[in-house]
Amino acid sequence: MTAGMLLLLLLPLPHMMCKPDTMMCSKSETFHNVYQWYKPGDIVIGGIATHIAVLFPMISFKTHPSQEPWNDLIVMTKFYQHILALVFAVNELNENHKILPNVTLGFHIYDSFYDISYGSFEPEEDKRTDFPSFYRMASNQAFQYQGIVQLLFYFQWKWVGILTSSDDDGEQFSRNLEPLFSQNGICPAFIEILTDTLDFSDFEQLFSVSLSKIPFFLDIKVNAFVLDGEVLSIMWVAVLLRVTTAWILLSDVAYKGKISVGKVWITTAQIDFIFTTIQRNWDIQMFHGALSFNIHSKELPGFQTFLQKTNPQRTKADGFIKDFWEQAFECTFLLSSNDPEEGNKLCTGEERLESLPGPVFEMGMTGHSYSIYNAVYSLAHALHTLYISRFKHRENQNEGRISLSDVDPWQLHLILQTISFNNSAREEIVFNQHGELDLGFDITNLVTFPNNSFVRIKVGWFDSHAPLGQELSFDQYRINWHRNFMKVPPPSVCNDNCLPGYSMERKEGEKFCCYDCAPCPEGMFSNEIDMDKCITCPEGHYPNKGQDQCIPKMTSFLSFQETLGIILTFGALFFSLITAVVLGIFRMYQDTPIVKANNQNLSYVLLISILFCNLCSLLFIGQPNKVTCLFRQAAFGVIFSVAVSSVLAKTILVVLAFVASKPRNIFRNWMGKGLAPLIVSVCSLIQVIICVTWVGTSPPFPNVDMHSKTEEIVLECNDGSVTMFYCVLGYMGLLALVSFTVAFLARKLPDSFNEAKFITFSMFVFCSVWLSFVPTYLSTRGKEMVAVEIFSILASSVALLGCIFLPKCYIIIMRPDLNTPSRVREYLHCASRDRTRNNLYHRDH
Hints:
Blueprint (H helix, E strand, L loop, with lengths): L5 E5 L25 E4 L3 E7 L2 E3 L18 E3 L4 H16 L9 E7 L29 H14 L4 E7 L2 H16 L3 E8 L8 H10 L1 H5 L5 E4 L3 H21 L12 E4 L23 E5 L7 H6 L12 H9 L1 E2 L12 E2 L20 H31 L11 H8 L3 E3 L5 E3 L10 E8 L5 E9 L9 E3 L27 E5 L8 E5 L4 E2 L9 E2 L4 E3 L6 E3 L1 E3 L6 H26 L4 H5 L2 H17 L9 H35 L14 H23 L3 E5 L6 E7 L3 H24 L9 H24 L4 H32 L6 H24 L1
Parallel strand pairs: 1-3, 3-6, 7-8, 7-9, 9-10, 10-11, 12-13, 25-27
Antiparallel strand pairs: 2-6, 4-5, 11-16, 14-15, 16-17, 17-18, 19-20, 21-22, 23-24, 26-27
């Protein structure tokens, strides 16, 4: 039965670069193409396949190129599976009575040296308005770009070599990939263009070109190569690697051990690992471990059996199989036009396809063949939809036999745009709005064997429908890496990664992937490799010694449980106890001359104020809170002012007692009981006013200091107003300075028990302590600052207690013989006599 219409199916087969240039031929000059396969049917599906290559084109110019036979034809044996995939799909459809019943499909497959938009394609070529009838059985090239970049980023390969073809596709590939590289921190170490006019007959040119590529393989930093192009590209790279390695190792031993063909080859979907008959003995292991983006495929039930049954006897109409069989199995049929060459074996037809190595023929379903199979089924389902529509129309109109001979192409386009079905692998087939069958890309790992066979192991998948950034799913533990690698996965970087604790420092004049590593500045960290800059830790954290992670800061305050707090607490309580004991002694011996001579009430006030000075230091220990912060500095200032005012009053009384002893002295009337309380009250009241003003205007408050100490969060009392704090200290210092000055001037006056001398020394110690306190206080933070203030409080309190009262306690307890009225009078008489003699001596001289 004659065909009702011809549907042309454009097979997405690799583009062969090595083809003769042909001119336009007239019908009378057409050359009979023996490479075809025809099977009649009600509907014939046409196929254009790339099956033959001419490696040594020698045009004589004696006859028209289209009429001149080619003697050096090379069969791309691996592509024969694509032809068989179309035949398998048609046969399967003819046996399936659920699709196109009573309709027989046929096919007519021709060989061609040209292809139209192979496999994945550039997004710019997607012009549905210009080519509404053009359907592609592979994903958009833009998704492949993203997949390559995500794969490189996954392994942190940032210094990458790019090998691409010299045609427009290669230029487009480089142009689209480079910005994606830049966005993801990847740099091309080089972009090398592979020639598209490779002439295998010109060995001098092969060597010359190969030698020019040596530097790329000497660079041990570049372990990842992205290879884009067509089928010839992998052949050219194989030649390049073989010639380069052999020539260098034989000609210059200096290169030995430096050059390695062990690289990670990342190939695009346009590339297939194929060797021609002249290359079949080459070692495919140079590509061991390659990672390939392949058009998605699944194994089809029955396809392997179909391949196993394929032989020249079963397919007489197949114009491709004879040359395929001869070159695949390196044998010759007796009926060949050329006599068998000496040493060639005869083809029996019983050879098995499954015995062929992978570069020659694959038994597994390739992505190209899977796309062809789905394309045939898409056409069949579109025709079936039209068939069902006409069947229903026939039933309504009571018409005769259904015919599809008058189908217009536009009718199929409308159906193909909305068609959806599951193929025999149970995968949904549906075209998107761009006329693409978008099934994503398989990522396979090439595992080679010494017998030149290989298997592809699926290690990942790029799903273009997945959420952004999650398109790539990958299992790196299934990868077999090249055997030359000492470390897997191998690094491919311009320099070693900057480890955590360092940041990248750009090198002037070089690509951004080449950089130095600088240690993080103090107080900053980096916790990832190759960080652009170090960062500060979050609030409440600090970098560890290696500056590669942040550690939570510990809260810090002077607690009662720590050693320093225990020592200071013990000191405060101990000195308070001593003060209380001294107060008890003075109370017990209040009627003795030494106690009476020291202004009994004023001594009590001074001792009690010293006692409270010691105890108020305890307010500085423990976790700060509102109450302790509010009152501790004010209590310290007021109590100390009372103590220093009492000392000042004692000093003034000593001076007045001596002056008032002279006849008719005006100060005699001042020597009443109310003078000392007046001095203490007035001097203390001024400090009280200062403290009340401070608490009323800028009261101290609990504060959390995150920044003063690197490793600690300081819990402290903020003084509120630093000015008021130093006013309190300044006023207290003024009282101490006045007391010291008066006591110093009165140190030689004849008082009882050298009171003025002891006061002078005590105030000297007191002033020294607080003068040392100020710079020390300003230079410390945290618990150390609090400890400094507590120490100053205790030291100055002990100075007052020890210098003024301990000598008196010694006399009271240890020398009671000196604590009698007669001894006091005797001491005062001797002191007065000595002073009179001194005055007369100074007057005479």
